[in-house]
């Protein structure tokens, strides 16, 4: 009986949320169900704003949110940190360094996955205004943000076309979204996979047509690719942990073989200039320094530094690389070169 009631409530709430109707009449009837399901799954279909003080919440200044998931699970959140920032909160955001910018980008990406496109658009606009000051780094950042902003507008357009049952036009929008996803290296694989899965889910409900078929096939190809890449990267992470233990046990030959296996996986899955790949190269250079194979270590350090210079605001992994390289140069009495490397680390740190 309880399962039937749960399923019935899901259908009612889905309909209410779809048509933007109030849900206050059913507040009390689902509170007992909500209490059993407080953890939000990662594969949510969407989050929909409801009226304030949902289920008798004492938080009067914030909205509650209803979450609907593929397995029929409902969930309510209502606390002092709402899922979606208000316009005032977005405008008041302090974006002064790279960490602030990364945090804001992650939030904006999460809004996209929640179909909160208006909030995502405003957040991207806020970030663009924060990096308006001309600089070589900001140009790369602004380009990525503009691509993300255009993707949000594409999501909105696809939604409107779906609502009007213009499935060919919505499919064309989804193909363009897939292009922005696949070409942006700054989006984590997990996020890319979530976006692609959402597009596949939407296309599976659309009327069959030439453009729909092409878009679905493109999304399916990317879904398979990202799934394989994530599996490979998990394997690389396991190899890194094993190599680290071998290195600290003094088993350098075995550690080297495993580090090289991990590096090969990351180069194939992510590319040679990805930060995760560069971190793997730095691990290998550090190992060579530990073995006193200084010429080989210097060669890898210099190659890795050259690749890092292509990345805008490389961040903490780059600083760690510089510090390890500087320590090794000091150890072999190349102090002037070490001072240059340490100075580069200080400059990079000051930009964070």
Short description:
It is built from 14 helices and 3 strands. It is mainly α and 352 residues long. It has 4 domains: 2-77, no CATH class; 84-164, no CATH class; 187-271; 274-352, Serine Threonine Protein Phosphatase 5, Tetratricopeptide repeat, CATH 1.25.40.
Question: Could you list some keywords that capture this structure?
Answer:
352 residues; mainly alpha; 4 domains; three-stranded antiparallel beta sheet; globular
Number of helices: 14
Which oligomeric form is depicted?
A: single chain
The low-confidence runs, each spanning 5 or more residues with pLDDT under 50, are 5-82
Instruction: Describe the global form.
Output: globular
Spatial strand order of the main sheet: 1-2-3
Biggest β-sheet strands, sense, barrel: 3 strands, antiparallel
Q: Got a strand count?
A: 3
């Amino acid at each position: 009986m309880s399962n039937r009631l749960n399923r019935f409530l899901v259908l009612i709430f889905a309909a209410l949320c779809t048509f933007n109707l109030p849900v206050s009449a059913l507040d009390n009837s689902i509170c007992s169900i909500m209490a059993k399901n407080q953890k939000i799954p990662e594969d949510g279909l969407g989050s929909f704003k409801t009226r304030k003080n949902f289920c008798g919440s004492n938080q009067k200044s914030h909205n509650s949110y209803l979450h609907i998931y593929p397995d029929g699970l409902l969930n309510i959140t209502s606390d002092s940190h709402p899922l979606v920032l208000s316009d005032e909160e977005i405008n008041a955001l302090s974006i002064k360094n790279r960490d602030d910018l990364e945090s804001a980008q992650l939030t904006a990406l999460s809004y996209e996955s929640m179909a909160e496109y208006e909030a995502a658009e405003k957040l991207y606009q806020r970030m663009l205004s924060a990096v308006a000051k001309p600089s070589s780094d900001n140009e790369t950042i602004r380009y990525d943000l503009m691509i993300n902003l255009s993707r949000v507008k594409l999501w909105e357009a696809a939604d409107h076309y779906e609502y009007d049952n213009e499935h060919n036009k919505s499919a064309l929008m989804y193909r363009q979204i897939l292009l922005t996803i696949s070409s942006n290296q700054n989006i984590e694989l997990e996020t890319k996979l979530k976006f692609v899965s959402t597009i596949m889910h939407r296309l599976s409900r659309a009327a069959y047509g030439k453009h729909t078929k092409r878009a679905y096939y493109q999304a399916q190809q990317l879904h398979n690719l990202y799934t394989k890449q994530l599996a490979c990267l998990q394997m690389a992470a396991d190899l890194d942990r094993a190599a680290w233990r071998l290195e600290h046990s003094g088993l350098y030959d075995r550690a080297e073989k495993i580090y090289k296996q991990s590096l090969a996986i990351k180069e194939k899955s992510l590319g040679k200039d990805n930060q995760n790949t560069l971190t793997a190269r730095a691990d290998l250079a550090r190992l060579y320094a530990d073995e006193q194979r200084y010429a080989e270590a210097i060669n890898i350090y210099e190659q890795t530094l050259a690749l890092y210079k292509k990345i805008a605001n490389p961040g903490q992994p780059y600083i760690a690389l510089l510090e390890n390289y500087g320590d090794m140069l000091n150890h072999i009495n190349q102090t002037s070169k070490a001072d240059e490397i340490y100075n580069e680390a200080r400059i990079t740190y000051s930009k964070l």
